[in-house]
Amino acid sequence: MGITVYGAHLMVPEETRTVPRIVRAAAGVGFDGIDLGYYWGENRQEEFKEAQKVADAEGIEIANYIVGNNFGNAAAESEEKFQAEIDKVNQALDEAAYFGCKVLRVFGGGYDLDWDTYSGRIAEALAKCAERAAKNQVVMAIEDHGALCRNSTQQLFYINTVNSPWLRANCDIGNYWVVGRTPSQQLPLDGVTAIAPYTAMVHVKDYVIINNTAVAVPTGEGVIDMEACFRVLKDAGYDSWVTLEYECSIGVPKQGITTSLVNMRRFDVSC
């Protein structure tokens, strides 16, 4: 069971926040792994070494890598910015390989843009990055993250269009249902069932709905049937990292993260 650096960062005060300290905090809660990629300082290479040193000392694995790209909106702005996003993902693929990670989470992007106009450009960017992914032996996992990749149908469009073993899916269970703070049209179990055979990474988060607004809560404390989702993934042959992406703003983060981990282990055992 893992946690992303985005979420784990909440356990370290902003004024003293560094990636090595986030790694140590995640290990202290009891996670087996952590996904890195955000919150690096100015001296990335030195911090890479320190993060790996801390991970080794604390007995936590650097599991996966993440990048916050946006191909769609970059394509709408200029070819220069479009190429810059491709370069950004290629750099993240190199960094993932440095840490020995086998999977890189990527986004499609394209907020407030037309599907017919820009989905092809997103697929084009993913295809170009697949060359670097193959070189580094790192699979890109495109997440259901809103914009022009908000559900399993759109994830499958990119996977089938690029048609490369180096592009698979990040199955973000909560995001099938909730993107931003508004419930969408795809139930989590339906999204998981559709994408499970193509899944290379899994993110978990949970919600309750109050006045038609999604409110993030610790995983296992909301209304998503996590146990059923875990079972579908396991039945499809998924046997890699299940990673908490903690977005709850209620209560003390460390307490909510600990509760999430306890529930994640319970769901995993029950399957």
How are the secondary structure elements laid out?
Layout: E1 2-4, H1 5-8, H2 19-29, E2 33-36, H3 44-58, E3 61-66, H4 71-77, H5 79-98, E4 103-106, H6 115-136, E5 139-143, H7 152-162, E6 167-172, H8 173-177, E7 178-179, E8 182-183, H9 188-195, E9 199-204, E10 206-210, E11 213-217, H10 226-235, E12 242-244, H11 253-270
Parallel strand pairs: 1-2, 1-12, 2-3, 3-4, 4-5, 5-6, 6-9, 9-12
Antiparallel strand pairs: 7-8, 10-11
Helix pairs in contact: 2-3, 4-5, 4-6, 5-6, 6-7, 7-9, 9-10, 10-11
Characterization of this structure:
The protein has 271 residues and is α/β, with parallel strands linked by helices. The protein has one domain: TIM Barrel, CATH 3.20.20.150. 48% of the residues lie in helices and 19% in strands. The chain contains 11 helices and 12 strands. An 8-stranded parallel beta barrel has the order 1-2-3-4-5-6-9-12, surrounded by 7 helices. Strands 7-8 form a two-stranded antiparallel sheet. The radius of gyration is 18 Å and the shape is globular. The two termini are 14 Å apart. The model has no long low-confidence stretch (mean pLDDT 95).
Radius of gyration: 18 Å
Overall helicity = 40-55%
Q: H/E element string?
A: EHHEHEHHEHEHEHEEHEEEHEH
Average pLDDT rating: 95
The main sheet orders its strands as: 1-2-3-4-5-6-9-12
Largest sheet: 8 strands, parallel, barrel
* Text of the CATH class: Alpha Beta
Count of DSSP H/I helices: 11
Q: Which percent band covers the strand fraction?
A: 15-25%
**Between the first and last Cα atoms, what is the distance in angstroms?**
14 Å
**Low-confidence runs (pLDDT<50, min 5 residues)?**
none
